[in-house]
Amino acid sequence: MTIEKANSEEHEILTEITKKSKAYWGYSPEQILQWNNSLTVSMDYIEKNDVFKLVSDTKIIGYYSYITEENHTVKLDNLFVLPEYIGKGFGKYLIADFLKRMRDEKCKKIILNSEPNAEKFYQKMGFIKIGEFETSIKNRFMPIMEMKL
């Protein structure tokens, strides 16, 4: 198993992983379709941002991406694993790689907007909730989380 920089030709695979992973939490096909734009990983996105894929044998099973902001702050923009790999340690494996990379890059703070169902996962990884905002689904709030390094 390896974590490698993704290339723009893999955008469709990463988009598929994103949509399948999001649907894992019980969102309807209609809701996934409504979120199509925000769940799509474009070639341009991969070219402009840091995107790393998790490869098992020759299959991409997950990925993460981040955006460098000001003042040594990084936003973890995406972290998704195919549903059949959720709960088996692959998300932790991706986070560990990401955190090592951030420490190596002298990052001081990481922020993220968590899928509500993944909030506990991020808390276990050391993130704390600092706020929330209501999403397009009424009474569904997305946690805003951070970790200081």
CATH top level assignment:
Alpha Beta
- The CATH topology annotation reads as Aminopeptidase
Number of helix segments? 6
Classify the helix fraction into a percent range.
25-40%
Share in β-strands: 25-35%
Query: Could you spell the SSE succession in H and E letters?
Result: EHHHHEEEHEHEE
Q: Quick check: average pLDDT?
A: 95
The CATH superfamily is: Gcn5-related N-acetyltransferase (GNAT)
User: How many independent structural domains?
Assistant: 1
Distance between the termini: 27 Å
CATH architectural arrangement: 3-Layer(aba) Sandwich
Shape verdict: globular
Largest sheet: 7 strands, mixed
Strand numbers in spatial order across the main sheet: 1-2-3-4-5-7-6
Q: In total, how many beta strands? A: 7
Structural class: alpha+beta
Spans where pLDDT lies below 50 across 5 or more residues: none
- Using only C-alpha atoms, the radius of gyration works out to 15 Å
